[in-house]
Write the structure tokens for this entry.
Amino acid sequence: MSGTAHTTGAQTAQVRTIGRVTTLATPQTVLLASPRGYCAGVDRAVQTVERALDLYGPPVYVRKEIVHNKHVVESLRARGAIFVDELTDEVPEGAITVFSAHGVSPAVHADAEQRGLRTIDATCPLVTKVHREAVKFAEEGYHMILIGHAGHEEVEGTMGEAPDHITLVETIDDVDRLEIDPDTEKLAYISQTTLSVGETREIITRLRERFTHIVGPRKDDICYATTNRQLAVKQLAEQCDLVLVIGSQNSSNSLRLVDVTRELGTDSYLIDNASEVDEAWLTGRRTIGITSGASAPDELVEQLVDVFRSRGTTDVRELEVIREDVRFMLPKTIRVEQSARDAAQV
């Protein structure tokens, strides 16, 4: 037996269990940020592993997590993908091996070739763009300041393109501590693609203050999806009492969505799925916003929305800030193999 109690603010749903009544908070409105979830690079990477499994059969080895999302990784693992941290003896000679969306260094490519692995590169094209910038700047004699997070796979791959020409900074304080001669003639900056737009802008401003002649890429390195999701969550935060961000703890862009929301004074929490919602977060909230990082599938958002609908929330709306229509082709290796298979069946 269950009932619903209404208040002047948030609603509550009463669930009767043996011996007691548990009151569950029920927001009046749920707003869904748009855009949210998968970006073109993530969609391409996930499809790459799925197609590789279809074409070659399991196992398909994947260096690192294909994207930073627990749900995606577990789903692909269940289909026969084997995730490895490095290309050790665990990966047999000649095995089908996919490089993740975050990119790898030339040393990893060389190691794979030496071991005879059949590689498929699922690196996001926007990450590849940063790699090419690093190579170009290095060839032209520039020393580069890379704005990014130490230990992130994308940063490791980028630095591997020109390790003797790159210095990593994470904060404005790091910029102030740089021991680089201000008169160094050729100085450039590049950045990780999944950073906070505002924070990165502040770091670039400080770099330009210290090194007035520093140059940057012709086009911003932070990817369109990161920018758009942060723009959308800003508008979401202005209309909500709480914003729930669906994404994994190792997802840089998901963490930045929480940071951006909190900077605006709105409570926000990062969750992998609906089961991680703390009931205390919902108490007294009339309008709850939901968004998701660029590596989180939308089915996780739908599951969370279903939870609120089951409690009695009927006002569920999209808050569309900008429309995205970016698509990336699958890696050439996959396309060529698929065409050959299709031709053989004709």
User: Anything to note?
Assistant: Confidence is low (pLDDT under 50) at residues 1-8, 14-22.
